Automatic annotation (TrEMBL):
The chain crosses the membrane at residues 146-170. InterPro entries: Ig-like_dom, Ig-like_dom_sf, Ig-like_fold, Ig_sub, Ig_V-set, Myelin_P0-rel. One of its GO terms (biological process) is cell-cell adhesion. It comes from Leptobrachium leishanense (Leishan spiny toad). CDD domains: TM_EGFR-like. This is Myelin protein P0. Residues 1-21 form the signal peptide. GO terms for cellular component: plasma membrane. The keyword Glycoprotein applies. It comes from the Eukaryota. Belongs to the myelin P0 protein family. The keyword Signal applies.
């Protein structure tokens, strides 16, 4: 019959093994513009060293349905998505050595709204909560709207520049006009009269001589 302390150690060992869980981290909600490539980030930590049997599973659950759909699977190498909604659109973008199990979902559409589940297993760490990301695809501004906005900004800036230029030119021409129409001062007139008188006096002197 085993000694009591042997049974006690065995029970602790079982408890220690079952307590091994893998932690998975994701954001709860994520907004993505319609038609863009979106990175679904999923990171993890494991108490056990990473082994060759580590697996990453991404599944999708629609907003109004309980059934799930496979998005992506990784085991020793990335496997392409099966035929369906995510075929040719889900790509591996993680690094297991850095605890990263992220994927990229290309050209997201409103039909992709729903919950994305990230599950990582690293035997013997196979227990733990899955990461859940609620993806919401939102409409982005169309090219025409952006074009109109840029056009309005450009026209407004051009009008302001023309207005400032007009004010500067108006002030310049007004200054030049005032300068040309400025009356001759009384001192200048007196000098001119004295010059003429001296010229006449000189002419008279020459005649008398």
């Amino acid at each position: 019959m085993p000694a009591p302390w042997t049974l006690h150690l065995a029970a602790l060992g079982v408890l220690f093994v079952t307590a091994h869980t893998i932690e998975v981290y994701t954001v709860k909600e994520l907004e993505a513009p319609n038609g863009t490539d979106t990175r679904l980030k999923c990171t993890f930590s494991s108490a056990s060293p990473l082994g060759r049997e580590i697996t990453v599973s991404w599944t999708y659950r629609h907003l109004k349905e309980e059934k799930t759909e496979t998005v992506f699977f990784y085991h020793k190498e990335p496997f392409p998505p099966p035929p369906g909604r995510f075929e040719g659109r889900a790509f591996w973008d993680g690094n297991l050595n850095r605890g990263d199990a992220s994927i990229i979902l290309r050209n997201v559409q409103e039909k992709d709204n729903g919950t994305y589940l990230c599950q990582v297993k690293n035997p013997p760490d196979v227990h733990g909560e899955m990461g859940e990301i609620m993806l919401k695809v939102v409409n982005k501004s169309s090219f025409s709207e952006i074009h109109i906005l840029l056009l309005v900004i450009g026209v407004g800036s051009a009008l302001i520049i023309l207005l400032v230029l007009g004010i500067v030119l108006f002030r310049y021409y007004r200054t030049q006009k005032n300068h040309r129409s400025t009356p001759v001062s009384s001192l200048e007139c007196a000098e001119k009269v004295n010059e003429k008188n001296q010229e006449k006096l000189l002419e008279a002197t020459e005649i008398n001589a």
